[in-house]
Give the backbone structure.
Amino acid sequence: QVRLQESGPGLVKPSQTLSLNCTVSGGSITREGLYWTWIRQHPMRGLEWLGYIYHSGHTYYNPSLQSRITISFGTSKKQFSLSLASVTAADTAVYYCARGGTSRGWELPRFDQWGQGTLVTVSS
Amino acid sequence: QSPLTQPPSASGSPGQSVTISCTGSTSDVGGYDYVSWYQQHPGKAPKLLIYEVNRRPSGVPDRFFGSKSATTASLIVSGLQAADDADYYCSSYAGNNTWLFGGGTRVTVL
């Protein structure tokens, strides 16, 4: 059973960069057909897909965040990370990392494994 | 890209059925068979219930059924149980490797 765990600062000042890591255990992060994903949930609101990194390293981002977001693999091969620059109060949310899984290899992913989420507050 | 539209709330008594709609456009729900549904209990991470419109992951009971017509997807929860009291979110592929979520529906089991 794959497990994901988010980690990082719970408080970030406005205009600074939000940085989170997701540690993956119980499975290979480099296995073909997997999309390592970040999703956030604003307080009392719905979910927002932020982006993902494919096993090959290709990245795909939400167009509304394109200029501020970077998703990358860590050096440990067990982690992937999220970087969101120039944050404002509107970026306050619970941030989830998730696995985008496929079973046939060619289809688009479904988000089938999630971390527990971590609350990030943007405030001075 | 606008979020997909879901009703804010739905309810039913134990044993009854509830249907949740998810309305998008021809650029997302209507254009692809990549609609998923997620269940979220308070303080917990979302859990995948349905993917590719009507496929259930292993372990999800067949009381949960997904369908799609044109630009509207639906989740039917039959035989309502107390454990079904939760928030439900739809998601759809929107082209160019981007994804949309709905605003969520709060299901109350009366």
Summary: The beta strands of chain B are 9-12, 18-23, 35-40, 47-50, 64-69, 72-77, 86-93, 99-101, 105-109. The longest strand of chain B covers residues 86-93.
